[in-house]
Write a structure and sequence with these properties.
By secondary structure, the chain is an alpha/beta fold. The chain has helices at 43-52, 87-100, 121-131, 176-187, 197-203, 223-236; strands spanning 14-20, 37-38, 41-42, 57-64, 77-80, 108-111, 137-143, 148-152, 155-160, 166-175, 209-212. The protein has one domain: Spore Coat Polysaccharide Biosynthesis Protein SpsA, Chain A. The protein is built from 6 helices and 11 strands. α2 crosses α4 and α4 packs across α5 (197-203). It is globular, with a radius of gyration of 18 Å. The protein binds cytidine-5'-triphosphate and ligand LQXTBERG. This is 2-C-methyl-D-erythritol 4-phosphate cytidylyltransferase.
Length: 237
């Protein structure tokens, strides 16, 4: 391509995939954590409200556990009961469903965590803007703010330089075909070591782009996270 030739615009569509089949065992709640009420609405409804407010998203697909007894349909959201035993398997099954529905492999998929209910539409837009022109895709992430220790037997083994270390968040945005192929390759090994979409893409030899997000986009994981999440939601409403 000559330097004068304008790059062709990326007209591929963006789809959101929300794996929601986890047990939330670390949350210590009677209900699965994605249904725990925050300001009177199930946690996952806050996540969905943020995703549905992103104009650039063509569709939102939720992947539920096959035996989920708590889900209630949400207008504009497709839900499939194809969740798996791990997050990676739930994502893989969701990607299979998108492909079976005829979504082209060149379209983008933004995979988010149901448990990251504080994501904002502008953070998702920033990811889309940064990744649309990227050959690989990328993820929201946070530069490590604290000193990092490696542990052995409950004691510090060493201090690890925090420069160039980031905490991976979601959404993570990749081409449907490339993410599907990367997860398919990891499937034979039971998705071992695949804790996010980027780790699957990295195994296929590529380097996802890091897009700086905000600390407020944390994953509700432990009991005290609900209090913090509710306080942040209240401060926004
Ligand atoms: N088999 C699984 C496991 C996790 N997830 C989803 O992956 C996201 C991130 O996982 P996390 O919330 O940390 O995992 P959980 O399994 O829900 O929680 P825990 O590890 O505490 O049991 C969540 O939206 C969760 O619903 C999923 O779809 N399928
Ligand atoms: C995808 C993720 O949220 C990125 O930080 C994280 O890896 C999910 O991990 P979990 O083991 O399912 O909590």
């Amino acid at each position: 391509m000559s330097p004068d030739t304008p790059a062709s615009p990326d007209t591929a569509l963006c789809h959101a995939l929300l794996p929601t089949a986890g047990s939330g065992s670390r949350a210590g709640t009677a209900l699965p954590k994605q249904y725990q009420p925050l300001l009177g609405r199930p946690l996952v409804q806050h996540t969905l409200a943020a995703l549905r407010a992103v104009p650039g998203l063509q569709r939102v697909l939720v992947v539920l556990a096959p035996d989920d007894a708590h889900w209630t349909d949400v207008p504009g959201v497709d839900a499939l009961r194809c969740g798996g035993a791990t997050r990676a398997e739930s994502v893989f099954n969701g990607l299979e469903a998108l492909r079976a529905a005829g979504v082209p492999d060149t379209d983008w998929v933004l995979v988010h965590d149901a448990a990251r209910c504080l994501v904002t539409p502008d953070e998702v837009n920033a990811l889309i803007d940064a990744c649309r022109g990227d050959a690989v895709g990328g993820l929201l992430a946070l530069p490590l703010p604290d000193t990092l220790k490696a542990e052995a037997g409950g004691r510090v083994q060493q201090t690890i330089a925090r420069e160039h270390k980031w905490l991976a968040q979601t959404p993570q945005m990749f081409r449907l075909g490339e993410l599907h192929a990367a997860l398919a390759a990891a499937r034979a090994g039971g998705f071992a070591g695949i804790t996010d979409e980027a780790s699957a893409i990295e195994r296929s030899g590529r380097q996802p782009r890091l897009v700086e997000g905000r600390a407020s986009n944390f994953k509700v994981t432990y009991p005290h996270d609900f209090t913090l999440a509710e306080a942040i939601l209240r401060s926004r409403s």
